[in-house]
Design goal:
Strand content: under 5%
Shape: elongated
Number of helices: 23
CATH topology of the domain at 6-66: 434 Repressor (Amino-terminal Domain)
Order of helices and strands: HHHHHHHHHHHHHHHHHHHHHHH
Distance between the termini: 60 Å
CATH superfamily of the domain at 6-66: lambda repressor-like DNA-binding domains
Radius of gyration: 23 Å
Structural class: mainly alpha
CATH class of the domain at 6-66: Mainly Alpha
Helix content: 55-70%
Length: 450
């Protein structure tokens, strides 16, 4: 059963606020405030600082006001808060977090070190099922692109469109993690168009819908990045950056520039990555973890450009910034020693420090939390390349085959690109058992040329 947040409503009245006046302060709909107090949903984390200020309470006191709903209540939905990477949701602006990659994945409110599987384990089929059920019960979405959507949407004021897209995005993020980008891309891009349609007809609070559109665009860029579809990834980061500038939101601007730097690194353009990462660092609000992530990508980019000293300094800065940054459940919960290590190890491969890189990859992978199977496979494939370049064929082939299985399952080109590179490193004439098994698997799954 649902439990009304009586104390939340009482506190609002003590402050002399009606639901309408509080909604105006927070730039949300009145029905959203009503749903919070009814225990139907909880505030998105980017709203919480303003809500605490409006009610004259601390963040912890606000958490107490919102925690009346029993955890077992099936109808209570905390709006936890990609990656995309994204990206709880950004407490001060837009919701970001990088899928250990990055993509904007939201963290659970109050637990910045959560495992994504703890809040939602949904397959790609389930995500599509949610969308299908949504369209069946919510005609506002089904007709949003029709001849006269505004009138129909106006007939459903009880629908919180931002919450709908928030929940769908969580399912899509988990589907991507479990099954890969291919099946998630169409619904993600369709959702961006739907959100745009809602904005054009004036449905929903404009700032909140714009932030959600930025989230989806960054996530779409991440999906195309995983597929190594560079033009489409660039398209969506460009759109997300434009929309972030329209909001004047430095947090979102920094996060999108970081995504662009990550894409540049994956594309092998170290100089471009450094410039983008440095721009992200300048845009990042003080005290956030954005600066630390930007420094890590600058370090990787510098290594790709062959600048060892600059790379080392950037990674040192990333660690310092990560240690000094405020707790930020909205962005950077994934940022730990392992995250920085994998990017430094990848840079060390580019610098020719193959054995050191292989060891660093191994330490980082062993330190990763569970639930990131595809990302672990990406790093394992890179570790395999490092081993092969160091002349250690057997562990390279073993790791490569394991990573290949995940790459085939998810369609991740971030994995398969390194698997093919590994194949090119091996001596064609070797009869080593593990290499033969690696090649047989690659031919069976049509990953490697015959």
């Amino acid at each position: 059963m649902q439990t009304r947040r009586t104390e939340l409503a009482v506190r609002r009245r003590v402050c002399g606020l009606s639901q309408e006046s509080l909604a105006a302060v927070l730039e949300v709909d009145r029905t959203t405030v009503a749903r919070w107090e009814a225990g139907i949903s909880a505030p998105l984390p980017w709203v919480r600082p303003k809500l605490a200020e409006a009610l004259g309470v601390t963040a912890d006191e606000l958490s107490d006001l919102l925690d009346e709903i029993p955890a077992s209540a099936p109808d209570s939905r905390t709006e936890v808060g990609t990656g995309m990477s994204g990206s709880g949701l950004i407490a001060t602006a837009a919701p970001w977090a990088l899928d250990r990659g990055p993509t904007l994945v939201e963290s659970t409110a109050g637990d910045p070190a959560f495992d994504r599987r703890d809040f939602l384990v949904l397959s790609a089929g389930t995500a599509v099922g949610i969308a299908h059920d949504w369209l069946a019960v919510d005609p506002t979405l089904a007709v949003a692109g029709g001849e006269a959507p505004a009138a129909v949407l106006a007939d459903a004021p009880q629908i919180d469109q931002v919450e709908h897209f928030h929940r769908l995005r969580l399912a899509l993020i988990e589907s991507d993690n479990l099954h890969g980008a291919r099946s998630v891309i169409p619904l993600t891009e369709q959702s961006i168009e739907r959100i745009g349609q809602l904005r054009r007809v004036g449905i929903g609070e404009p700032t909140a819908t714009q932030r959600m559109r930025i989230l989806y665009a960054e996530f779409a860029a991440w999906l195309h990045q995983d597929r190594r579809a560079w033009e489409r990834a660039q398209h969506w980061t460009d759109r997300a950056l434009t929309w972030s500038h329209q909001l004047g939101d430095d947090y979102s601007i920094a996060a999108i520039l970081i995504r662009k730097a990550h894409i540049a690194n994956d594309h092998g353009d170290g100089n471009e990555a450094v410039e983008l990462a440095e721009a992200a660092g300048r845009a990042a609000p003080p005290g956030t973890r954005l600066g630390a992530v930007a420094a890590a990508f600058a370090g990787h980019g510098a290594a790709l450009a062959g600048n060892r000293a600059t790379s080392e300094r950037a990674f040192d800065r990333a660690r310092d910034l990560a240690e000094d940054a405020d707790t930020d459940p909205s962005y950077g919960f994934f940022l730990d020693q392992s995250y920085i290590d994998v990017h430094q190890a990848h840079g060390r491969v580019a610098l020719g420090d193959h054995r050191v890189a292989a060891d660093q990859f191994g330490q980082a992978i062993s330190g990763m939390r569970s639930g990131f199977t595809r990302d672990q496979a990406v790093y394992a494939a890179r570790q395999a390349v490092a081993y092969a370049k160091a002349g250690e064929v057997e562990p390279a082939a073993q790791l490569g085959r394991t990573a290949m299985e995940v790459g085939v399952s998810t369609g991740s080109e971030r994995i398969l690109t390194h698997v093919r590179a590994l194949h090119g490193i091996f001596d064609p004439g070797t009869a080593q058992t593990e290499v033969a098994a690696f090649r047989d698997a690659g031919k069976r799954w049509a990953v490697l040329a015959s």
